[in-house]
Amino acid sequence: MMFWYTGLLLQRCMNKHPLIKSYPDIGEVAFGLRGRAMISTFIYIELFLVAVELLILEGDNLEKLFPHMNFKIGSLRIEGKSGFVVLAALVILPTTWLRSLGALAYVSLGGVMVSIVLIGCVVWVGEVDGVGFHESGQLVNWEGLTTAVSLFAFCYCAHGVMPTLINSMNDRSQFGKVLIVCFVASTIIYGTIAVLGYAMFGDYLMSQITLNLPSKKISTKLAIYSTIINPFTKYAVLITPIANAIEEKWLLCKRKPIAILVRTTILVSTVLMALFMPFFGYVMAFIGAFFSVTISLLFPCICYLKMNKAARQFGLELIIIIVILFVGIFIGILGTYLSVRHIVNHMKLCS
């Protein structure tokens, strides 16, 4: 509900200044060039890291599907997961060359359908393939609360692309309805998978439920195929704002060949990052705690208060915004500390 509400605040900011085209524009109107620079930095790093997460997801699931598989390019040998990350990037690459968000909308629709198929496969594994829903574990783990909330934040971190999406709509007034449908649908999908995962695997549930499913079952393979397809439908949408910002900075990039080069360079850099730090769950928690909370909870509230004097008057709206700010600051500080500590510890173990 908090993330949905701050999405509406972004829309209200844009309605007050019709010339606003992007999230950084909101920062500039509210706080000048410094506000624009800060928001731009946070957004583009967040979108970049989420794109990295999608590639890690691809590598993990393809390795589950095809274990002990290695790749050879001349004298160079690439281990299974790393090779799958590179292979997935090559398949994703053509979708990044699409510059129209209208065209990408049809690609993203496939992601929604794939999520529904994934839920069906997980239910089938539990009910028909014999895994069952009887696993017990620690029902409440208070030590994991901050990390869990950071993961929630990651799941609803679409605010960086919301202004871009609003400007791509034929009827901007329908954005509020689109937002609530998307958030309700996402919550149902996330909640269903979470409950199924806990009921099936309890404390043994891994960072991705597909990694727990029995390898040789057809339903498991279908679930993993569904998970593999999902990043293909989302990756291009995530890096489009980054590419657009680069293209607007240098007018030469409006030429199509150079635009393709820009998008390809972004993809290559996300591949390198995915190979360097392949810890899906902890990277997700870090993005959620540090970037998603800041961009999706803190910045919308602060910018809205700055741009709208009436909102600073004591009332229900101001109380809601203050509560969101306090919750966001708490999650951000504690969640970032814990996630960074987990990442550092795992990097030490890997080395």
How are the secondary structure elements laid out?
Layout: H1 2-16, H2 23-65, E1 71-73, E2 76-78, H3 80-96, H4 101-127, H5 145-155, H6 162-168, H7 175-201, H8 218-249, H9 256-276, H10 280-307, H11 316-350
Antiparallel strand pairs: 1-2
Main location: membrane
Keywords: Amino-acid transport, Auxin signaling pathway, Cell membrane, Membrane, Symport, Transmembrane, Transmembrane helix, Transport
Family: Belongs to the amino acid/polyamine transporter 2 family. Amino acid/auxin permease (AAAP) (TC 2.A.18.1) subfamily.
TL;DR?
With 351 residues, this protein is mainly alpha-helical. The chain has helices spanning 2-16, 23-65, 80-96, 101-127, 145-155, 162-168, 175-201, 218-249, 256-276, 280-307, 316-350; strands spanning 71-73, 76-78.
Characterization of this structure:
- With 351 residues, the protein is mainly α.
- It has a single domain, classed as Sodium/glucose cotransporter, CATH 1.20.1730.
- Helices cover 75% and strands 2% of the residues.
- The chain is built from eleven helices and two strands, in the order ααββααααααααα.
- A two-stranded antiparallel sheet has the order 1-2.
- A hairpin with a 2-residue loop joins β1 and β2 (76-78).
- α2 runs antiparallel to α10 and α5 packs across α10.
- The longest helix has 43 residues, at 23-65.
- The radius of gyration is 21 Å and the shape is globular.
- GO terms for molecular function: symporter activity.
- Pfam families: Aa_trans.
- InterPro entries: AA_transpt_TM (IPR013057).
- It is a multi-pass membrane protein.
- One of its GO terms (biological process) is auxin-activated signaling pathway.
